[in-house]
Amino acid sequence: MLEFLVQAGAAADGFGGPAGIWAAIVKDFSNITEPAALAAFVQVLMIDLVLAGDNAIVVGALAAGLPADQRKKVILIGVLAALVLRIAFALVVQQLMGIVGLIFVGGLLLAWVAWKMWRELRHTGQSHGSPEVEGDEHSGLKPAKSFAGAAWAVAVADVSMSLDNVLAVAGAAREHPGIMIVGLIFAVALMGLAANIIAKYIERYRWIAYVGLAVIVYVAVKMIYEGWVDPGVGIGTLFG
After folding, report:
1. What is the value of pTM for the model shown?
2. Theoretical Cys-Cys bridge with 111: which of 116, 149, 156, 220, CB 3.0 to 4.6 Å?
3. Alpha-carbon distance 62 to 60, whole Å?
4. Furthest-apart CA atoms within the chain: distance in Å
5. Mind listing the pLDDT tens digit for each residue in 62-81?
6. DSSP class of residue 82?
7. Which residues, in sequence order, are CB contacts of 214 under 8 Å at separation 6+?
8. Angstrom distance (rounded) from CA 95 to CA 14
9. Is 111 left (phi over 0), alpha (psi -120 to 50) or beta?
């Protein structure tokens, strides 16, 4: 799956094939001690950790009202959908970032995500939570009442959260394509392997979520600013 992401990403993003992707990764990580590259890498890690955990919590909360066998199926659907959607969005993110105004719109979207996360962190949950996912009882989400309803709600949530994840990573590391590529691969790996573990630790150590929230706010503000003033893709160019 990761090899597919790398090869397809090369075609979509114009890095010149796997060799070009590898060259971008080597270039960025050979300079990882530079403040700008290190800051971008830390931001990407925090975004991936917090949003992977948030994804797992949302899926678990929506499935909490179902019988055990249906609940496990919905959670599996949620994880698989998140994997596929993150890959799909990652394949086109570089092209999307070249569209005038999209960085600005992406920043506004991330600002809304940050506001939503802030409300969820301070909310007393409405769901009793799924046994398979720790921490989802404090999500503030009402569990779905049927398998079809839960599957649909999870699919819709996955689209939103996957786009948020990819946009945030791309916004944090836009000037460091190698770090961006590693961050997107890391996001996919976390969703597939460790999302529930991350959700457990975020619930136990709430400061992790607040640090991640601060990073997302910073990236959102940065994207809004750059999405306005960037001479190539900023919407400020539309107004002379």
Report:
1. 0.78
2. 220
3. 6
4. 59
5. 888 888 888 888 888 888 88
6. H
7. none
8. 9
9. alpha
* φ and ψ of 138, to 5 deg: -110, 25
Over the stretch 172-198, which tens digit does the pLDDT of each residue have? 888 888 898 888 888 888 877 777 788
Mean per-residue pLDDT, 28-42: 90
Alpha carbon of 198 to those of 106, 193, 203, 233: distances in Å?
Answer: 25, 10, 9, 35
Q: How far, in Å, CA of 23 to CA of 202, rounded?
A: 34
Please give the Cα distance from 111 to 90 (Å, whole number): 20
Q: Position 219: which residue type?
A: V
pLDDT tens column, 94-142: 667 777 777 888 889 889 888 888 887 776 555 566 766 766 666 667 7
